[in-house]
Amino acid sequence: MSGPALSALDLAALLCSRVCHDLISPVGAIVNGLEVLEEEKDESTKEFALELIKKSSRTASAKLQFCRIAFGAAGSAGAQIDTGDAENISRGFIEDEKVKLTWNVPRALLPKNRVKLLLNMLIVSGQAIPRGGLLVVDPIGTGETMSFKITATGPNGRIPQAIPPLLTAEPTAEAIDAHRIQPFYTGLLAKDCGLAVTMGNEGEAIVVIAQ
User: pTM for this one?
Assistant: First the structure.
């Protein structure tokens, strides 16, 4: 049974909650590190706190830059985004000691919602490899109608049960909350681009495709 449509106000509020959720951890670590610097006398502990602040600051900055494009307005109506810039912010957001990114999309200016779709597909794909692994981003087609395929491989890779239905961006019987809004929003972006997003298995890999 279908549930009620998500209002524009609820969509905005849930996306804001999602962004805040992503930023709470690194910002909280910065605050904790500053408190240690103010109160601690031991030099080695203060040095550790300073390194924590530096690392958390870089993480918070990378998340903000990514979320600005993935969820934000990213310029005026009809604006285009450079896929090279999208690659740079994606690497800052995704790559760490556990997850690596192979980016095969050529540098080009694409409509902003198409690039926003790609970034949101990356988030969805990352959820398929909770223990880390490799994300490979490939183009489908060329030019402004280019779409994308992301292949995720890693130990214990799996398709989260809740995600594929949400990618249709159709109202469901289950309430859309801050944890579910991101794949739902991915589906909305795909619809705006005249595409549909699917998530499935391809051998041992998990693929997310917009076409």
Answer: 0.89
d(CA 166, CA 198): 10
> What residue numbers bound the domain in which 62 lies?
8-210
Half-sphere exposure of 175 (CA within 13 A, CB side): 4
Q: Are 168 and 6 in contact (CB under 8 A)?
A: no
- Alpha-helical runs (H) found in the chain: 8-39, 43-70, 83-94, 112-126, 163-166, 181-192
Q: Is 108 helix (H, G, I), strand (E, B) or coil?
A: coil
pLDDT in single tens digits along all 211 residues of the chain? 344 577 889 889 998 998 898 889 899 999 988 988 888 788 888 888 899 999 999 999 999 999 999 998 765 556 899 999 999 999 999 998 899 999 999 999 999 999 999 999 999 999 999 999 999 999 999 988 999 999 999 998 999 999 999 999 886 656 788 888 999 999 999 999 999 999 999 989 999 999 9
Instruction: Tell me the Ramachandran region of residue 38: left when phi exceeds 0, alpha when psi lies from -120 to 50, beta otherwise.
Output: alpha
Asked if the structure places residue 3 within a domain, the reply is no
Stated as kind and residue range, the H or E segment containing 143 is none
Residue 199, domain member (yes or no): yes
Is residue 2 included in any domain, yes or no? no
Residue 72 lies in a domain: yes
Count of structural domains, the chain: 1
Report the DSSP beta bridge partners of residue 100.
134
Whichever domain contains 39, its CATH number is 3.30.565.10
